[in-house]
Amino acid sequence: MRMHYPLRNAYDSFRLPVGDGHTLYVEQAGNPEGTPVVFFHGGPGGGIDPAHRRYFDPDRYRVVLFDQRGAGRSTPHAALEHNTTWDLIADAERIRERLGIERWQAFGGSWGSTLALAYAVTHPDRVTSLVLRGIFLVRQKEVRWFYQHGASELFPDRFDAFRDHVAEDKRDDLLHAYHELLTSDDDDVRLAAARQWAMWEGATSRLILDDNLVQRCGATAFALALARIEAHYFVNDGFFEKDGWLLEQVHKIRHIPCTVVQGRYDVVCPVRSAWDLKTAWPELQLRIVPDAGHASSEPGIVDALIETTDAYAGLR
Is 198 helix (H, G, I), strand (E, B) or coil? Predict the structure, then answer.
């Protein structure tokens, strides 16, 4: 079974002003002459981590990673203004042009898969291949599954705390209730809601529940960006013009090599979405990992992702 590549330091990092008061943190790792790949992190609002470099052979890949608007080391932190899917796609193009990259692989999991797909259908001539994990299409039924009813049936012991943080008369629409709390003028209200939101996500992210992960997700700075930006995007349906928009657009990218790695027991982004994408895109390679949940760090997911990036290295 393949394991992560050894961690190497980024060889370049910089801050890129992108307008509307936003400045992105960008870094490059691996081989400056290698196959370019852009890493789209999850959330939205999750930010990048040094471990994200380890899915790529550092001798064969030039890995470009950036914190999306409001996330990680990008500023202003947890900001919602001028923060949409289309802003993020434009940001990726600014980064590509700044670095002089003609075409690159798009890699992303969870929300990162959403953004990678949206970027590809908007700029298909700039994408050499797609490596996706934990497909999320921001359809209303997917959001409702995780934030209202569905995952709640599998993790009732963790969901009840998430639900009960909301006033009883608002529990029939937890997403909008949380959005209201997360955009409150009261710092304490925002932070308390953010912790509950992020810990619910952490509790469901792995096949075997990891309470250490739950507590890390609840850390203040991470939780605030993740919760505020996710709620902002989800109450706005991902800023897509209609429900299911991404599936309707895949005809534009069916010529691009694409592999999807999907945990069979992914509770956050159930396998149904990956299957629906495969149905709309028959050429896509779908690899369902039988003993994995959502997290990219689970052994079977790591193995499949690295096998795929190894296979796609050299595509330009």
Answer: helix
Where the chain has pLDDT below 50, the residues are none
Rounded distance between C-alpha atoms, residue 200 and residue 215, angstroms: 10
The per-residue pLDDT for range 112-164, each reduced to its tens digit, is: 999 999 999 999 999 999 999 999 999 999 999 999 999 999 999 999 999 99
Strand partners, 132: 108, 260
Domain of 297 in residue numbering reads as 12-139+239-312
Q: Which two tokens stand for residue 289?
A: 């990992």
Residues 176 and 201: their CA atoms lie apart, in Å, by: 17
- Both 184 and 108 in one domain: the answer is no
Q: Give the three-class secondary structure for 111.
A: helix
Place of tokens 């010529």: 255
Q: What is the dihedral of CA 85, 219, 25, 8, to 10 degrees?
A: -120
Centre a 10 Å sphere on the Cβ of residue 105 and count the other Cβ atoms it contains. Answer: 27
pTM above 0.85, yes or no: yes
Chain centre distance of CA 57: 21
Query: How far apart, in whole angstroms, are the C-alpha atoms of residue 38 and residue 62?
Result: 9
Q: Are residues 159 and 82 in the same domain?
A: no
In a domain, 117, yes or no: yes
Which residues are part of the catalytic machinery? Answer: 110, 266, 294
Q: Residue 284 and residue 262: Cα distance in Å, rounded?
A: 13
